[in-house]
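Recap from last week: sequence in, structure out.
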Amino acid sequence: MKRILISIAALGLLGLQGIAVAGDPAEMSETCIECHEIDEFEGMSAEEIATATTEANANSKQMAKATADLSAEDLQAIIDYIAAEANK
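Predicted structure tokens:
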């Protein structure tokens, strides 16, 4: 549960920092990593992070707003990158 909440918080920061540009997933995820150590996501799959994001978007206006400017492809790229880096 802690990891899910961390994921939600980290992804929420994307919108708060105005990260809404297409590009390198590593660059787009920098805002998450500024506040969270990558090892906080250790053991979480991309699917788990994506599920947590979907649930948060449905239940949190702040999270929905934070990810609103991200394309589905960019959001998935960020999720995949964070999951891969955390589980190296």
